[in-house]
Specification:
The protein has about 325 residues and is an alpha/beta fold. It is about 30% helix and about 20% strand. The protein has 10 helices and 14 strands. Helix 1 crosses helix 5 and helix 9 runs parallel beside helix 10. The model has no long low-confidence stretch (mean pLDDT about 95).
Length: about 325
C-alpha cells in the first residue's frame, strides 16, 4: 500500500519561519512557496542536503537545480555576473527570471549537474525570500513534485505528491504565476539564449538587453545527459493519463470521443456544458490560463479519465510558456 502523507504544513508565521530556517541550516529539505510553482528547498552549498532533493523527487543528477537568493548583493558569491546579467537582474528581480552564468567554486557539483555554470534566481514570494534571509544560505529549489510529474501550485499538491518523503511544507497560498520561471543563458552575453519560456517574455528580455534573444525548441534530450538548466527534457510536467494536444478542440472531436475522455479548453467554450468539458480561464485570459494549467491537469489526472485532450494557446508571451509546458506534458 502507498505510504500516507506525513509531512506537516506550516503557516508563514515568524515562529514557523524561524523553525524552518533552522531545519534548512541543519541540512533538511523543506517544501516552499514561490510566485511560480512550489519548490523543494535545501541549502545550496550543502551537497548532502541537495542530494536529499534528488532522492525525494527521484530526480537524475544530470538535471541541475536553481539556486535562489534574497538580494542582488548575494549573486557575486555564487556566480560570475556580467553586464547583461546585471541589467536583467536589476529590471526583473525579484521575479520569475532565472539566469545561467558561470559558477563560483563554492557551488557543489550536484547543484550544477557537474557543469561549470549555475542557474540563479531571486524569487518575488515574500515568505520564500524571508526564509532565505533567515536561513543565511542560498537555497536550491526545483519544483516540489516527483520528477517529471505535473508541478505543484499549492501546499496541498506538495503534500499529496511528496508528503511521505519530506517533513515540512511552508504554505504561502496558491502560486500567483503557476508556471516555472523564464530561463535565459547569459554565459555568453553577446549571444543570449532563451532556454525555457515563462512569465517574462522573450520580447521583454530583448528590449531590456537591447539585442535579440534566440530561442529554438530544444531537440530531444536524454535524461542521462547533463543539462545546463532544468526543464529542458522532452517529456516533463506530465500527467500519468495520456494527453493529446490539438490546435482547437471542436464539437466534432468531442462528438466522436467517449465519455471517459476529458477536454481542456483555454477559454470557456460557448454553449458546451458536458461534465467532461473544462477550461482554464472563462474569458481566455492567458495569464489566468497559465495560473490554472498545472492545477487543472492534476485534477483531471486523478479523475479517472482514460484520455485527456488539451488545446494550444494562441499568441505570444504567456502562450509560448503554456504551449511549451503542454508539449512536454504530452510527449511520449
Amino acid at each position: 500500500m502507498p505510504r500516507k502523507p506525513t509531512s506537516r504544513i506550516f503557516r508563514g508565521t515568524p515562529r514557523n519561519l524561524s523553525y524552518l530556517a533552522h531545519c534548512l541550516r541543519a541540512g533538511d529539505i523543506v517544501g516552499v512557496p514561490t510566485e511560480t510553482v512550489y519548490g523543494l528547498a535545501a541549502d545550496a552549498l550543502n551537497p548532502r542536503a541537495c542530494q536529499k532533493i534528488f532522492t525525494a523527487k527521484g530526480r537524475p543528477t544530470t538535471d541541475p537545480l536553481i539556486v535562489h537568493i534574497a538580494a542582488l548583493t548575494e549573486l557575486d558569491a555564487i556566480a560570475v555576473p556580467n553586464a547583461a546579467a546585471l541589467r536583467l537582474a536589476k529590471k526583473f528581480w525579484p521575479g520569475p527570471l532565472t539566469l545561467i552564468l558561470p559558477k563560483k567554486a563554492v557551488v557543489p557539483a550536484i547543484v550544477s549537474a557537474g557543469l561549470p555554470s549555475v542557474a540563479v534566481r531571486m524569487p518575488a514570494h515574500r515568505l520564500f525570500r524571508r526564509l532565505i534571509q533567515l536561513s543565511g544560505r542560498p537555497l536550491a529549489a526545483p519544483s516540489a513534485n516527483p520528477f517529471g510529474y505535473i508541478s505543484p501550485t499549492t501546499a496541498e499538491h506538495v503534500r499529496a505528491s511528496l508528503g511521505s518523503k519530506i517533513n515540512s511544507i511552508l504554505d504561502g497560498g496558491p502560486a500567483d504565476i503557476g508556471l516555472e520561471s523564464t530561463i535565459i543563458d547569459l554565459r555568453n552575453p553577446a549571444r543570449p539564449r532563451l532556454l525555457r519560456p515563462g512569465a517574462i517574455s522573450r520580447e521583454a528580455l530583448a528590449t531590456a538587453l537591447g539585442r535579440p534573444v534566440a530561442w529554438r525548441r530544444p531537440k530531444t534530450v536524454a535524461p542521462t545527459q547533463a543539462q545546463v538548466a532544468p526543464g529542458l527534457l522532452t517529456r516533463h510536467y506530465s500527467p500519468r493519463t495520456s494527453l493529446v494536444l490539438h490546435a482547437r478542440i471542436t464539437p466534432a472531436l468531442i462528438a466522436k470521443s467517449g465519455p471517459n475522455e476529458a477536454f481542456l479548453h483555454i477559454a470557456k467554450p460557448a454553449g458546451r456544458t458536458a461534465k467532461n468539458i473544462f477550461w482554464l480561464d472563462a474569458r481566455g485570459n492567458l495569464h489566468g490560463a497559465a495560473r490554472r494549467l498545472f492545477a487543472q491537469l492534476r485534477a483531471l489526472d486523478t479523475a479517472g479519465y482514460r484520455r485527456l485532450h488539451a488545446e494550444y494557446a494562441c499568441g505570444r508571451g504567456p502562450a509560448e510558456a503554456i504551449n511549451d509546458r503542454l508539449r512536454r506534458a504530452a510527449a511520449v
